[in-house]
Amino acid sequence: MKRRSLLTMIPAASALLALRSNAAPIPQPTLTIAGFAIAVQCWSFREFSLFEAIEMAAAAGANVELFPGQKIGGPLGDLAFGPDLGEQQLQLVIDHLKKNAVSAVNFGVAAISSNEAEARKTFEFAKRLGLYGVTTESIEALDTLEKLANEYDLKVCFHNHPKPTPLWNPETVWKALESRHPNLGYCADIGHWASSALDPLEVIQKIAPRVHAFHMKDRASISEWTHDRPFGTGVIKLAAILDEVRKHGFAGNVSIEYEHNWKTSLPEVAQCVGYLRAYSAIRA
């Protein structure tokens, strides 16, 4: 490259470096004394904007798991959240997280392409946000996800919806991940397992070494769908589930996903946060 051409690039490069230096990623969340992070999946606050969801999570004393497509709010209005955001738009979200002393932990449930160039956009986005991992059901992209999970040192957490969706049976993911990179694992949605007539504790006892994250719920029944309940008021053995994964060194994210009383759930979400903090204090 000619010296003159190089010199003409210096102002632009300097401006880019200045932008990046002023746009440091948000800090990692503080772990509980039991070794895991507490978050609220923003889907719980889907009736609100992302800015409002961040404020509500802060009021409940939790971090956030972000989901694609939520209206951002604030100065970005109805713009949808996701990897296609520009740097300045993303910085506004990061600034709002910092303002409310909230960290983002995961992003999902996100469809991720098997095309490496397309998938890389999600991983770059996650790294920029300082995330622990991404949550997905794109098992068909496993080879690409394994490569990028290793390269970016991010967890890929495979999520389950209820029967008859493709990953409802935890054995499907377990077999797919055999001999794969340890950054690949589960986002265990225990409420959806209960809706599929699977006992969540029995499932966890089989797959605990590969659990990287939770969408945690409590329910009044195992065998049929019932709405979510504040933690500790249903029949799912939450403490035993956490005990089991911690035997295997679990240090991931426990995201509260509360799909009930959509517009007025904040008190129940705060009760769930309180349960997890009490568990941590007792088990530490």
Which properties best describe this structure?
alpha/beta; TIM Barrel; 8-stranded parallel beta barrel; 10 helices; about 40% helix
Structure, explained:
The chain is of the alpha/beta class and 284 residues long. It has a single domain (33-283), classed as TIM Barrel (Alpha-Beta Barrel), CATH 3.20.20. It is 40% helix and 13% strand. The protein contains ten helices and eight strands. The protein has helices spanning 3-21, 50-60, 87-99, 116-128, 142-152, 170-176, 190-195, 200-207, 238-246, 266-283; strands at residues 37-41, 63-66, 104-107, 133-136, 155-159, 184-189, 211-216, 253-256. The chain has an eight-stranded parallel β-barrel with strand order 1-2-3-4-5-6-7-8, surrounded by four helices. α2 packs across α10 (266-283), α4 packs parallel to α5 (142-152) and α8 packs parallel to α9. The termini are far apart. Mean pLDDT is 92; it is low at 1-21.
Please give the structural blueprint:
Layout: H1 3-21, E1 37-41, H2 50-60, E2 63-66, H3 87-99, E3 104-107, H4 116-128, E4 133-136, H5 142-152, E5 155-159, H6 170-176, E6 184-189, H7 190-195, H8 200-207, E7 211-216, H9 238-246, E8 253-256, H10 266-283
Parallel strand pairs: 1-2, 1-8, 2-3, 3-4, 4-5, 5-6, 6-7, 7-8
Distance between the termini: 59 Å
Approximate helicity band: 40-55%
β content, as a range? Answer: 5-15%
Query: What is the CATH third-level topology name?
Result: TIM Barrel
Rough shape?
Answer: globular
CATH class: Alpha Beta
- The CATH homologous superfamily is named Divalent-metal-dependent TIM barrel enzymes
* Total domain units: 1
Number of helices: 10
Mean of residue pLDDT? 92
How many strands, which pairing sense, and closed or not: the largest β-sheet? 8 strands, parallel, barrel
Which class of secondary structure composition applies to the elements? alpha/beta
